[in-house]
């Protein structure tokens, strides 16, 4: 093989490695509880940017106490180049592609991320509705988190019913069986 071909193969391998590095890197650094089981492959990577609504409510298990309660998310899902490929909303947690296909899911696990950010999350997807980008998705991971935690504003009995919206960003990685 000549030097040009060897250089071409090396460059191709380097580019492929760089494109897969974010997934491989993220998968290696995640806590075990939120890793996708063996036998699955990444089918779609998105960046979700949006907001989460919280409401001040009575604590379910503590009479007379209040807390910020997660009401639901609303985010735009974009590919790595910034092009919108779908939306995320709830409840129930729903990821919908631009082609109309969508999935909901059941949370399998969460694990702490860094302070001030939502936790990592692993969701087992229900069968997709419609055919398209979400067809065959079996798991969804939430990683690379920025913000989204309950407001720092007080939540007292006088604040019950008050809603606060916080910004967040997260990568949603969609997996399917190999």
Shape: globular
Main pleated-sheet profile: 8 strands, antiparallel, barrel
Secondary-structure class: alpha+beta
Rounded to the nearest angstrom, the distance between the terminal CA atoms is 33 Å
Strand order of the largest sheet: 1-2-3-4-5-6-7-8
The beta-strand count equals: 8
In total, the number of domains comes to 2
Pfam family, one: DUF3455
Keywords: Signal
Signal peptide: 1-26
Protein name: DUF3455 domain-containing protein
Q: Could you explain how this protein is built, in words?
A:
The chain is an alpha+beta fold and 178 residues long. It has 2 domains: 1-30; 32-177, no CATH class. Helices cover 15% and strands 47% of the residues. The chain has 1 helix and 8 strands, in the order αββββββββ. The protein has one helix spanning 3-29; strands spanning 40-58, 66-78, 84-89, 94-97, 102-111, 120-125, 137-147, 163-177. It has an 8-stranded antiparallel beta barrel. Strand 1 and strand 2 form a beta hairpin. The longest helix has 27 residues, at 3-29. It is globular. Mean pLDDT is 87; it is low at 1-27. This is DUF3455 domain-containing protein. InterPro entries: DUF3455.
């Amino acid at each position: 093989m000549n030097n040009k071909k060897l250089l071409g193969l090396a460059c191709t391998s380097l580019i492929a490695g760089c494109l897969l590095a974010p997934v491989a890197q993220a998968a290696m650094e995640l806590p075990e509880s939120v890793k996708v089981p063996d036998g699955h492959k990444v089918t779609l990577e998105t960046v979700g940017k949006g907001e989460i609504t919280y409401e001040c409510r009575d604590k379910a298990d503590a009479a007379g106490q209040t807390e910020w309660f997660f009401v639901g998310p609303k985010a735009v899902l974009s590919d790595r180049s910034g092009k919108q490929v779908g939306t995320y909303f709830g409840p129930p947690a729903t990821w919908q592609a631009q082609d109309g296909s969508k999935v909901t899911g059941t949370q399998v696990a969460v694990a702490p991320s860094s302070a001030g950010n939502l936790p990592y999350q692993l969701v087992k997807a229900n069968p997709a509705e419609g055919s398209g980008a979400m067809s065959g998705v079996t798991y969804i991971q939430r990683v690379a988190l920025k913000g989204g935690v309950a407001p720092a504003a007080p939540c007292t009995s006088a604040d019950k019913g008050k809603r606060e919206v916080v910004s967040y960003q997260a990568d949603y990685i969609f997996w399917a069986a190999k």
